[in-house]
Amino acid sequence: MSTPSSVTLSRRGILAAGGAVGIGALLAACGDKGSGDAKSGAKSGPWSFTDDRKVKTSLDGVPQRIVAFTGTAAALHDFGIDDQIVGVFGPTKLQNGKADPQAGDIDVDKVTILGNAYDKFNVEKYAGLTPDLLITNMYEPGALWFVPEDSADKIAKLAKSVAITSSRVPLVKIIERYAELAESLGADLKAKKVTDAKARFEKAAASLRKAAKSHPVKVLACSGSPELFYASNPGINADLMYYKSLGVDLIVPDHLDKGGYFESLSWENADKYKADLLLLDNRTATLQPKELAAKPSWAKLPAVKAGQITPWSSEPRFSYAGAAPLIEAIAKAIEGAKKVN
Question: Are 223 and 230 in contact (CB under 8 A)?
């Protein structure tokens, strides 16, 4: 994923170190969770999971009160984890009250939203949920995505956490890890909903491989902000890594910013890379074609002139159900693109 927002440009991770100051009675309350929350039918007995920090988290039973980053919760929901998710943090609702794309199929009116944007996390609300477990992505080693630095110690004291690597490995590998986590939480990976989604994902991947071979166009994944144009790196972004492995001719920027996710270009240099097709970051924090039309250098790009732009979900949902339509859309865009450089 390349990140256009000024607060997330460096993909800075937020370490959730434990053992720090608590928040009074709420902390104490969270330390005394009985077994009354366990759902009938849920797996019984001790639960443990080793995350991608190589940290083994163990609890007396399967977590029944999970708080997760919105995209993480959406991925788990796709695998069948629903009622256990009581709270989320991260982009969840749009200004019009509808679900943010990152929320996937979650009922956003059913969960408690602890914060709807980066660096927003209501610790008191979190404590009030008496969480068993916090789950989120990890774009940098040891860093918990969307957990604010200034309250990370308090958050870590309230419940144990699980982090899943979300970059530097192909998309499909991350999806497999989420499947493992979901299964440990009680999901049935043989449920029709899950097997149908996996079959669709595999079919989409085959279609993308075929499209890339029959329509060898150069593709650039990019993001736009008022000041800069970002060319994303398929060598580190999980989804782009996977698309490239399927044969998509993704342009690799040659002067990457610190962190390696993208190259920042001034708008005057937006034409540095000659692309036939643009995958444009479609997150709400980034500029979309309507806003970009005011940028003369954008309008002059050959791919823009040809109308060869397709939305790119640069923070994909790490599930078969979440990723399949994204792959289908890119395959269709490549099939319909022609060389313009």
Answer: yes
From 161, 156, 151, 127, select the one nearest 27 (Cα to Cα). Answer: 127
Ramachandran region, residue 168 (left: φ > 0; alpha: ψ -120 to 50; beta: rest): left
CB 212 within 8 A of CB 235: no
Query: What CA–CA distance (Å, rounded) separates 326 from 75?
Result: 14
pLDDT tens, the chain, 341 aa long? 444 343 343 333 322 323 222 333 333 334 444 333 333 345 668 999 999 999 999 999 999 999 999 999 999 999 999 999 999 999 999 999 999 989 999 999 999 999 998 889 999 999 999 999 999 999 999 999 999 999 999 999 999 999 999 999 999 999 999 999 999 999 999 999 999 999 999 999 999 999 999 999 999 999 999 999 999 999 999 999 999 999 999 999 999 999 899 999 999 999 999 999 999 999 878 999 999 999 999 999 999 999 999 999 988 999 999 999 999 999 999 999 999 98
Instruction: Write the DSSP assignment of 227-264 as a string of letters.
Output: SEEEEE-TTTBHHHHHHHHTT-EE---SSPPTTSSEEE
Distance (Å, whole) CA 272 – CA 49:
45
**Spatial distance between the Cα atoms of 240 and 243, rounded to a whole number of angstroms:** 5
User: Which amino acid is residue 119, in one-letter code?
Assistant: D
Cβ neighbors of 291 (< 8 A, separation 6 or more) are 224
Partners of residue 85 on adjacent β-strands = 66
* Alpha helical stretches, state H, the chain: 25-30, 70-78, 123-128, 152-158, 171-184, 192-214, 238-245, 289-292, 296-299, 302-305, 320-336
Give the whole-angstrom CA distance, residue 302 versus residue 209: 24
The amino acid at residue 127 is: A
Beta partners for 278?
A: 220, 309
Residue the block writes with tokens 């997150």: 283
Crossing angle between the packed helical segments 171-184 and 320-336, to the nearest 10 degrees: 160
